[in-house]
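Subject: for your reference before the review

Hello V.,

The reviewers asked for a structural picture of the protein, and I figured it would be easier to keep everything in one thread rather than splitting it across files. Below is the amino acid sequence we used in the manuscript, unchanged from the supplementary table.
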Amino acid sequence: MNISSSQFPVQGAGIGLRRSLLDEFLAQDQIPVGFMEVAPENWIGLGGRFGKQFRALTERYPFTLHGLSLSIGGPEKLDIAFVREVKQFMQEYNIRCYSEHLSYCSDDGHLYDLMPIPFTEEAVHYVAGRIRQVQDIIEQQLVIENVSYYAAPGKEMDEIDFINAVVEEADCKLLLDVNNIYVNSVNHRYDASEFLRALPGDRISYVHVAGHYNEADDLIVDTHGADVIDPVWGLLQEAYAEFGVLPTLLERDFNIPPYNELMAEIRQISEYQQKYAKLQHSGAHHVTA
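And here is what came back from the structure prediction:
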């Protein structure tokens, strides 16, 4: 499947922006990225030096939002006031799209973690309805990320079927996290490549790639605090071979390496994108990573 670039809100290789990176990024004439991403909770209403620095970067690079607190699968009512703030924030800074996790993180207060939604038909309808509610407010499709999870309480259907059903019923977009697929494939013992191929390629807006922590041989914890490993790079290439070259963002939340090392992983993404763009242009659509 070769997807037209017109479906994507951004292009190229991206980086998640953290406040600790502001000075370094603004000191560069040009950062080798096609876009950046921030969590709206960390930037809405931010003034002073950080606010000015953020605006300077939004004037130079396209941005996406990746939320932390929407709790799309949670039992509490959606925070409509916050969603309206997100819409205003997107308009103010010309931000391309808003993504969130297919999980929940609150129940009469924040739980400070991403909790797994039960894989059930009832949950599909519940979550899809909440996604549509958000979409009505922001007046565009919400982008939902497949998440890492460590237990599946109340499971009545497979994860892949749950994701596909939610995305279809909500008529939303997908943020494809290839590291989460790899982490879940080890923790829950399924075939990562088979899972990837079963996703709706025409719904993908962009991709996340990240590092993780090996707690044990059969337990991986998604941390965004380490370098991307070879099997995850391989899965990213499989995604390009299957769906076409996708905009791809590097997530690094802590243990952030020096600028040159961080950009080395960005260049790695760009090299894979260029490789598969050439292969697909030549007609070799299905390529072994």
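For the response letter, the relevant points are probably these. The mean pLDDT is 88. DSSP finds nine helices and twelve strands in the chain.

Happy to draft the paragraph if you're swamped.

O.
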